Amino acid sequence: MKITSYGAAGGVTGSKHLLEIEGKRILLDCGLFQGRRKESNERNRHLGFDVNTLDAVVLSHAHIDHSGLLPLLAKRGYRGNVYTTPATRDLCAIMLLDSAHIQQRDAEWLSKKKMEFVAPPYVSEDVQEIMRHFISVPYDLRFPVLPDVFVTLRDAGHVLGSAMVEVEYAEGGQWKRLIYSGDIGRRNMSILEDPWEPTEADVVMMESTYGSRDHDPVEMMEGKLADVINETHARGGKVIIPSFALERAQEVVYTLKVLESKGAIPKMPVFVDSPLTVNITEVFRLHTESFDDEFLDLMETRGDPFQLGNIRYIRNREQSMELNGLKGPAIIISASGMCEFGRIVHHLRNNIEDPKNTILIVGYQARNTLGRRIVERQREVRIFGVSRELRARVKVMNEFSAHAGRSELIDFGARFKNSAQRTILVHGEEESLQALKSGLEGKGVKGISIQEEGVVVEV
User: Fold this and answer.
1) 188 Cβ partners below 8 Å, 6+ apart?
2) Cα 66 to chain center, whole Å?
3) What single string gives the DSSP state of each residue in 373-392?
4) Taking CA atoms, which of 121, 252, 281, 343 is between 20 and 30 Å from 3?
């Protein structure tokens, strides 16, 4: 087997991992690179491989940094299958169209700046084409992808429909197993089942996003969120929450529902200002097979877990613009999660200079994003090309993270110390990769390597 990564190697976005098995070529994920606008534009136009040589694609989950360049495959002529879970297929039908619209707007912005036409990497027709080739497969069903290559999708517990990919293949007359972790979820999180716990594999490719640090305990989530809301309400300010449309927004709304039912927060309006988030929340309601028992019990006893006493799900632009003049305490949840695109950028522009307000960060912020600069509490940040003072308070709650923390990643990797000949670390920044490698070696795991982009690794 040969493995080549064309993204998420030495970084956390743009996952693309090509497997070559006895002349067969399978792509694991095909994600969009997210970072500086210029770099992102360049990288998202070049896959690094010839799509016409691909035999199959397997998608771990719907987050855009794992799925966002699938339409480019179709644009370049790929007509093979894309295997994933039913929930991921439904989410991609929404999220990839949204991504196409963002690509179109970015291309229009670049065209004006360069004073020449710049085409987007792909358009909605390319999304429609790639969606024709999706094949939905439920968890735990072993199915043939190619001759002598079988795949089983296992629940990763990261986001709705997320999967670890178990690949069984014949090589030199022997059957071997590779496990690609995708993004590993956390145990004891609300809404979803806990991640699958494998025990044996010959080759392991695992993510390293939080390889250098742990999150605060999940049990602290409700109390800390209540504190942020109560303190901001007392100041008469707004809580602005940049949130990934998939999973994070639903987790936040669900936690608000629990706090509201306990009387732990004051009554105040909540606005979910993201058409994508609204549509994704509807998909959640279709896939109760992924929910854990606690969440199902709440649905039975307290009704719709995504419906609060004073919540508005906003779809159209006019309603969103009305929030610019909103007075008094409120909670605004809006995409995108790293503050690079979408309506959240407008809400930050309008609220970042008011010290009564709180910007609540509930997800990972990659380097060179506006979200990362806010987390770093830089005195001034540029929004729409204009420098603005960061006077609002900034709170970070990693309890909401859907990624496993350092301890959970080490537990996951250490499961294979007696079986894996090779453990390959991907999807992490340098500090996290090195820290996780050291932690796994301390547990007796051998054969660990950190994947380098574009470098062919022979297993």
Assistant:
1) 194, 218
2) 8
3) HHHTT-SEEEETTEEEE--S
4) 121
Which distant-in-sequence residues (6+ apart) come within 8 Å of 205 by Cβ?
Answer: 3, 17, 28, 178, 179, 180, 181, 424, 426, 451
Smallest Cα–Cα separation from 341: which of 105, 121, 114? 105
What is the spatial distance between Cα 458 and Cα 354, in angstroms, rounded to a whole number? Answer: 54
Same domain, 48 and 152: yes
Query: pLDDT tens across 193-229, in order?
Result: 999 999 999 999 999 999 999 998 888 999 999 999 9
Residue 20 backbone dihedrals phi, psi, to 5 degrees: -120, 115
Rounded CA separation 2/199 (Å): 23
Q: Give the side-chain half-sphere CA count within 13 A for 428.
A: 32
Crossing angle, helix 406-414 and helix 430-442, to 10 degrees?
Answer: 50
Can you read off the two tokens belonging to residue 252? 């936040």
Answer yes or no: do 386 and 436 share one domain: no
- Domain range enclosing 269: 218-400
Alpha-carbon distance 22 to 1, whole Å?
7
pLDDT digits (tens, 9 = 90+) for 74-85: 999 999 999 999
Name the band, by pLDDT with cuts 50, 70 and 90, for residue 420. Answer: very high
Place of tokens 């900034």: 394
For 230, 360, 444, the CA distances from 344, given in Å and listed in that order, are 22, 12, 44
CA distances to 220, 289, 436, 439 from 407, in Å? 17, 28, 9, 9
| CA distances (Å), origin 249, targets 154, 206, 237, 284, 362 | 24, 25, 20, 12, 9
> Residue 149 pairs with which residues in a beta bridge?
146, 169
The tokens for 317 are 């632009």
The whole-angstrom separation of Cα 442 and Cα 266 is 47
CATH number, position 295: 3.40.50.10890
